[in-house]
Amino acid sequence: MANEEVKSEQEPPEEVKEVETEETAAETKEPVQAEEIEEEIEIVEEKFYTVNLRDLWTAPKDKRAPKAVRTLREFVKRHMKVDNVKVSNEINQEIWARSIQKPPRKLKIRAVKDKEGQVIVFPAKAA
């Protein structure tokens, strides 16, 4: 009986092995980069803009970054003549980089329209 107890202690149950493999598989997967998403989009139209956000600074401090996102969406809707605008994670991080109270005064963006009429806003790449 002592030998049987030792064997059961050495080998973990099968359920534990499955959990370990799922965790290691999740760790090896890399997050999807924005560049890969851009390559998948069929670009119909692409435009570069510099969006002036100076009017945000008249808003209360607690509402400046959310207003910057709304202003950016309105700007792109007006200039690209679409209703569906998505802001990429990189642009969102640029707006929120200095917290809610101090968004940037200007943003250089790249607006990409796909074949479905949806526009996605990315940061303009430096040449």
Question: Can you put this structure into words, describing what you see?
Answer:
- The chain has 127 residues and is an alpha+beta fold.
- It has helices at 2-10, 14-28, 34-40, 64-80, 89-96; strands at 43-52, 85-87, 106-114, 119-123.
- The chain has one domain (34-123): Ribosomal protein L31 (Ribosomal Protein L31e, Chain: W), CATH 3.10.440.10.
- β3 (106-114) and β4 (119-123) form a beta hairpin.
- The N and C termini lie far apart (74 Å).
What is this structure, in a nutshell?
The chain is α+β, with helices and mostly antiparallel strands.
Q: What is the topology?
A:
Elements: H1 2-10, H2 14-28, H3 34-40, E1 43-52, H4 64-80, E2 85-87, H5 89-96, E3 106-114, E4 119-123
Parallel strand pairs: 2-4
Antiparallel strand pairs: 1-3, 3-4
Summary tags:
single chain, Ribosomal Protein L31e, Chain: W, 127 residues, 5 helices, four-stranded mixed beta sheet, alpha+beta
Rg, Å, rounded = 24 Å
**Could you spell the SSE succession in H and E letters?**
HHHEHEHEE
What number of structural domains do the residues give? 1
Approximately how much beta-strand content do the residues carry? Answer: 15-25%
Mean pLDDT equals: 81
Oligomer, anyone?
single chain
Strand order of the largest sheet: 1-3-4-2
Number of helices: 5
- Extract low-pLDDT stretches: 16-27
CATH architecture, by name, is Roll
In total, the number of strands is 4
Named CATH topology = Ribosomal Protein L31e, Chain: W
Q: Percent helix among the residues?
A: 40-55%
Q: Globular, elongated, flat, extended or rod-shaped: what is the shape? A: globular
Helical/strand content category: alpha+beta
**N- to C-terminal distance:** 74 Å
CATH C-level category: Alpha Beta
